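Table 4 source record.
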Amino acid sequence: MCNRMTNITLHLSPTYEIEGKEYHFDQEAIEMIRTMIGDLLRSFSGYDLSNLTDIYFPSDYDQKLFDFQTKHNHEVGYTNTQTHQGFAMIIEYFNENQEVKSVVFYKPIILLQLYGVCTIPNEYPERIQNLILGTFYHELFHVHDFSNYQNVFKDDPSFMFLFEDFFNIWSEYYVHRMIESLFPNADINDVITETKRNLRNLDSPSIDVSVRDVLSLLGRNIGEMHSLGVDLIQSIDDYPVSATILRVERHLDMLFNQYPKWTIKDLESVIQDFILLVK
């Protein structure tokens, strides 16, 4: 079942099975959900969603996501580890005019949680509300950020692939810093523990976790730290942090404060340190 909101098509199902229980939505409930999602999108009106074409809440999340990834020649799958499980995913694709567009897939549990937060907010503690809303808006910030990133290269798109290592870290840094500032949910002690684990994984890479994945997680950690008003030196005083990591942290903060008024020269001036981390 599809509903179009401005230029974004919302894909819903009348029936979902969530954690072993079936949920049925009649037409009235579907319209309420459509209105709810529309209101959430309107509250995001200060950000750029011009490239977002579709939002999916499929009842068969894995199958629909994998089908879309396969159709558009993406690697199939999503994050599902002991420490992180993906509940949503943004995918960029080329439309029929060879323009880069975005879609977002959410697991059904996110829809149910959003419905609860928006209809009976008093039943949800503030931190849980922030977690649920943060999960929804997380992907929208990725859409907004990628659109701004494209604009840097609008005169020469072929340069974009040269900065892949930078964007891998930057995108998680930016989105988590924004989400944590708007929907605070992180515990600094948990962030520090995870940061140390990721630094160890970076120093001693394993075949189970790629360096790029670890750097993406570190981008998230540093973004959350900065949103909480601390940095690596203040937080990780009992673990050696390389000079390169500290330079990358400064670059991220500098670029955040300039965002989105970047030029290719701005990125060229910092890219070497990001590349060094991947080597």
